[in-house]
Amino acid sequence: MSEATATPRGSTRIGAPAGGRSAAPRRSFLRPLILVVLLVVLLALPIYVEEFWLRTGFAVFGAIVGAIGLNLLVGTTGQLSLAHAFFLACGAVTYVFVSGDSGGIGLADLSGLGLPPLVGMIAGVLVAGLAGLLFSPIAARLRGIYLGVASLGLVFIGQHVLNSWTSVTGGFNGRSAPEFSLFGFTFGNRDPELFVVGVPFREAERLWYLGLVLAFLAYLFARNLLRSRPGRALQTLRDSEVAASVMGVNVQRYKARVFLVSSMYAGLSGVMYALSIGSIAPESFGLELSILFLAMIVLGGLGSVGGAAAGAVFVSALPLVFQRYADVVPFVGGAGEGGLAPGEAARYFFGLAIILVVMFEPAGLAGFAGRFRRKGRDPGGGRPTSSSSAATDSSTTSVPSDRPAQGSTS
Amino acid sequence: MTQFLSLLLNGISLGAIYALIALGFVIIFKASEVVSFTHGSLLLLGAYSIARLSEPLGFFFGAIVGIAITALAALIIERLIINRLRGAPVISLAIVTIGVDIILLTELIRRIGSDILNVPHPWGGGSVRIGDIGISQNRLIATIVAGVLIALFFVAFKYSSWGVSMRASAEDGETAALMGIRLGRVSALAWVVAGALAGVAALFLVGSPTPGVSPTVYTVALRAFPAAILGGLDSTGGALVGGLLIGVSESLASGYQDQLLFLGRGFGDVVPYIVMIAVLLVRPSGLFGTKELTRV
Question: What is the dihedral of CA A302, A54, A33, A15, to 10 degrees?
Answer without folding.
Answer: -20
